[in-house]
Each structure stands twice: as structure tokens, then as C-alpha cells.
Amino acid sequence: MAKSKQQRLAAKAAAEAKGTGSPTIDNRRARHEFEILETIDAGLVLQGAEVKSLRRGGGSLGEAYARIRNGEVWLVGMHIAPYEQGRVDPHDPVRPRKLLLHAAEIKRLVGKTQERGLTLVPLRLYWSRGRAKIVLGVARGKKLHDKRESVREREIKRELARTKHG
Q1: Which of 30, 35, 110, 136 is least buried, going by the fewest C-beta atoms within 10 A?
Q2: Which residues have C-beta within 8 Å of that of residue 80, sequence separation ≥ 6?
């Protein structure tokens, strides 16, 4: 029996509210150090126990970045802790991992990253239908005065929220 669109949306919202049990990993430092111009979702190619380790929250995006090599997008510097109950020879924790994107998306990203000062930064790792996904941001590095301005704006918003609620 087919579900209506409203039923599907309600079920999806309930599943998101309940949570999948798998943690999302955020790269908070990237939002502080870079100005995010646009975002794109990509699949992540993992090996064996890396999946279980990530589901337990054993990953870090702190030093990670994405590179385009030979028409493929690679995530470099992402740390995935070895899974304790895994095999005797664990995976390399910081090996480059391939990202899955459509060819047209890769071509667009090549054009964007060839612009001066733009780079690909992973912003978030999340799970969708049992598959690991990465949110990539096309970003430009912030200068020190831009970072100070961002902090100032955030403090002003926080003060307004306090006065509004209090």
C-alpha cells in the first residue's frame, strides 16, 4: 500500500527526531576559519571496520580537507580510530578516502577550486539510509579581522536572544 507524501514526510521527521543511533561528526573549526560559499553532499567510501568505528563516534574531521586528483575527489586527513574488536591488522587511521560524486558535480568543483583562494572543506559527517555521507563546503579562508567580526556578530545575537527571553 502506497504512503501519501504527508505520511512519508511525517515518518521521516519522526525518524530524524528519534535519531538513528549513529552520531554525526561536525567540523566546528571549519566554520570559524572559513567562509562557506556553498555546500554539497558526497558519499564516503569506507573499508570494513571503519564503518563500525564511525558509528561509535570514533572519527575526527579537524585536520581534513578534500582534493581533486585525476577526476576523483579524495578526503585527506580525516582520522578514523581503529575498531577495537576488529581484525588483527587494523586500517590506517588517516588514509585518503574516496568521495562519491556525479561527474558533473566534480567538474563544477574543479572550476570552483581553481579560483584563487577557494578550497574544499568537510563540514559534517552524517548517516543516510545506512550510508556515510560528508557535507563538503566550497570555502574561502577568513582573515583575522573576519574571524573577530564573526565572533562579534555571534555575541550580539546572543545578547539579543537573552534580552528577548529575559
Answers
A1: 110
A2: 46, 50, 53, 54, 58, 59, 91, 93
Q: Determine contact, residues 119/77, Cβ cutoff 8 Å.
A: no
- The CA distance from 146 to 137, in Å, is 18
Name which of 124, 126, 128, 125 is nearest 12 in CA terms: 128
What's the burial of 73, exposed, middle or buried (CB within 10 Å: 0-12/13-18/19+)? buried
Please indicate, yes or no, whether the overall pTM of this predicted structure exceeds 0.85: no
Buried b (16+ CB within 10 A) or exposed e, 23-36: bebebeebbeebbe
Quickly count helices (H) and strands (E) in the chain.
Answer: 5, 9
Bridging pattern class, strands 25-26 and 34-44: unpaired
CA dist list (Å): 136 to 2, 18, 90, 125, 156: 34, 25, 27, 9, 28
Question: Which grid cell is 146?
Answer: 573576519
**CATH architecture observed for domain 21-165:** Beta Barrel (2.40)
